[in-house]
Amino acid sequence: MMIAHHVTGHGRPLNPPDPNRPGGPSGPGTPRLRPGDGFTLIEILVVVSIIAVVAGLVVMGIQRARVKVNITAARLTVESFVSAIENYYQDESVYPGMDLTPSPDENQFPVLFNALRGERKPRGPGGRNSPYIQVKEEQLAVYDADLDQYLPATLEQIRDPETPKYLLDPWGRPYVYRCNKGKKLENFMRNSNYDFYSVGPNGEDDTAQGVIDATQSDDIGNW
């Protein structure tokens, strides 16, 4: 017995194709999602945790590298100033600040700056061959007592020998200078002639506190 198929006027079957039959509407061999396909919540959390750990390690690596770069930069600055100070001494037979009394609470860097960078004597406080060293103006700062912080020095302040100026280290804190020549050595003095240093990454003036053990102090200076 013949079974008649119902067709439309254009010869197409009225009944739609079975989507579960191979070669259905998705095309031959097309995979279909089944219950349980995809990532579980635990798998997603594991991946996120791994990414967080890797990112943390990368950030730590960058921070450590940056500290090393800053330490190297501070050491180079110390070496440059030591050379300049010795050249000044050769010319003047004195170290800048020899007429001052060193104190752990005082930074004599403004005196040093004028000696190494000021206008030559007798017109200024500089040595006979000043300037003895080049510095980046953007690293110079003046202390604002009202704000209790160091602010970038203006060009006018840089040129004014009466304005105390400080050189900031890679961590944004002032380098410290103290002349010890001819003075009785005390626990905050590391050298008999002078100390020039950065307080280092931790920002603590360990030298002024009498801490000279390298395992306990991260100050970077001429020692």
Describe this protein's structure.
The chain is α+β, with helices and mostly antiparallel strands. The chain is built from 3 helices and 6 strands, in the order H-H-E-E-H-E-E-E-E. It has helices at 41-92, 109-117, 155-159, and strands spanning 140-144, 149-152, 166-167, 176-179, 194-198, 220-221. Strands 2-1-3 form a 3-stranded antiparallel sheet. The chain has a 3-stranded antiparallel sheet with strand order 4-5-6, with helices on one face. Strand 1 and strand 2 (149-152) form a beta hairpin. The protein is elongated and about 85 Å long.
Describe this structure in a few short sentences.
The chain has 223 residues and is of the alpha+beta class. The chain contains 3 helices and 6 strands. It has one domain.
Helix content: 25-40%
Anisotropy-based shape: elongated
Q: Sketch the topology as an H/E string, one letter per element.
A: HHEEHEEEE
Average pLDDT confidence is 88
- Tell me the Rg in angstroms: 36 Å
Structure annotation, total helices: 3
Largest sheet, described in full? Answer: 3 strands, antiparallel
Structural class of the helix and strand makeup? alpha+beta
Share of residues in strands: 5-15%
Major sheet: order of its strands? Answer: 2-1-3
Low-confidence stretches: none
Defining traits:
223 residues, three-stranded antiparallel beta sheet, 30% helix, 10% strand, elongated
Strand and helix layout:
Elements: H1 41-92, H2 109-117, E1 140-144, E2 149-152, H3 155-159, E3 166-167, E4 176-179, E5 194-198, E6 220-221
Antiparallel strand pairs: 1-2, 1-3, 4-5, 5-6
